[in-house]
Design goal:
The protein is of the alpha/beta class. The chain folds into two domains: about 5-55 and about 120-350, Alpha-Beta Barrel (TIM Barrel), CATH 3.20.20; about 55-120. It has helices spanning about 5-10, 25-35, 105-115, 125-135, 150-155, 160-170, 170-195, 215-220, 220-235, 250-255, 275-280, 300-315, 335-350; strands at about 50, 60-65, 70-80, 80-90, 95-100, 120-125, 145, 200, 235-240, 260-265, 285-290, 320-325. The strands form three sheets. Strands 7-8-9-10-11-12 form a six-stranded parallel β-sheet. Helix 12 links the parallel strand 11 (about 285-290) and strand 12 (about 320-325).
């Protein structure tokens, strides 16, 4: 199964707008997965629950066009002050680069805690069922839940460098805000535990060099372990998105109770071979991934691509707990034929 969304948007010059969510299934994207024989699983901008904020918190996402380039600004207005973050469109990579982090000091951090600690969530399982009906037997529909408290800081509001300085310079405040956000997140977890989805997708874009085991233990593990426990209690499976360095990360996420690592990227872009991934993860943790982004691109010989697929499929000698997938996603400018090459290799070599 593959996440073909970015590749599909780029190929067809479709909008990729982070300020909106898809309330209806992406029928053309799903149809393309079926056409090429790739299982579907990731509704990238699907909205399966609604979020409202406290009455004294105003939230907006607006778009402007400096020098003709789209830019999105997210803004929180709270009794403690105002913060906003900006991302600007990068046509070459078909992505939104971060132009301005919204939290720069202790005052801003308190504003973020105020804004995110009072969220309320309501189910929209009708939307999930519509996606599941559209996908049918060609895959599953993961239900994404977003970032943890520390993930909000690292990926949305502070960035890696400022977050790392903050946990040293004012760790008490960081702890307070992270705990506020995580406690609010658990209300969403409880809601999703009652959803019809079989698989819940969590993750902070984990990478073993950004959240190594000691950092994860201090700032993230308690939340993840509790969220996974609650989801398991209601019969859900949990996949966690690990799209960076794998050494240390696979083991720590498995130890937190997750069932599956999503977006696993082995060598040459990652730091572990497929065989090393299995040794790191242990025999029971599901590994979903396998083909790094650079191997999909036209400058890479097709033989290297094929060898990477076959090396991943060799994991079958350890058991069936792995999924043939891309390392994160099939990138823009990927060679279309390689999707079908991978499909055929899985068909020929992935069976027992």
């Amino acid at each position: 199964m593959l996440d073909l969304s970015h590749w599909f948007y780029h190929k067809h010059r479709r909008p990729w707008d982070l300020s909106v969510s898809y309330e209806e299934p992406e029928f053309e994207l799903i149809a393309f997965h079926k056409q090429v024989g790739a299982g579907f699983y990731l509704p990238n901008l699907g909205a399966f629950f609604s979020t409202t904020h406290a009455p004294d918190v105003q939230v907006s996402a607006t778009k402007d066009f400096p020098n003709g380039v789209p830019r999105i600004t997210w803004r929180y207005e709270t009794p403690l002050g105002v913060i906003e973050r900006k991302r600007i469109w990068q046509a070459g990579s078909y992505s939104w680069a971060i132009e301005d982090w919204g939290v720069k000091d202790e005052k801003d951090l308190k504003v973020l805690g105020c804004a995110l600690s009072g969220r309320q969530f309501a189910p929209r399982w009708d939307r999930w069922r519509a996606w599941a009906d559209a996908v049918g037997t060609m895959g599953v529909v993961y239900l994404p839940v977003g970032y943890s408290g520390i993930g909000q800081l690292l990926n949305y509001w502070m960035g890696i460098e400022t977050t790392m300085f903050a946990v040293v310079d004012y760790p008490g405040l960081v702890r307070e805000v992270v705990d506020q956000i995580n406690e609010n997140n658990l209300a969403l977890i409880d809601l999703i535990a009652g959803s019809p989805a079989e698989i819940v997708l969590m993750g902070d874009n984990f990478s073993g060099d950004i959240q190594p085991p000691r950092f994860f233990e201090a700032w993230s593990k308690r939340y993840y372990a509790e969220a996974i426990r609650r989801l398991h209690q209601q019969g859900k499976f949990v996949a966690v998105h690990i799209d960076g360095r794998l050494r240390g990360a696979l083991k720590m996420i498995g130890a937190a109770g997750a069932d599956c690592a999503d977006a696993v990227t082995p060598t040459p872009m990652g730091d572990l071979t497929p065989e090393e991934c299995r040794r790191e993860a242990g025999p029971d943790f599901i590994l979903s991934g396998g083909v790094p982004p650079n191997l999909w691109l036209p400058h890479t010989p097709v033989q290297d691509f094929e060898q990477a697929v076959l090396a991943w499929l060799e994991l079958k000698k350890h058991g069936p707990r792995f999924i043939a997938n891309a390392g994160d996603q099939v990138p823009p400018n990927a060679v279309a034929e390689r999707i079908e090459i991978m499909r055929d290799l899985v068909e020929a070599h992935g069976k027992y």
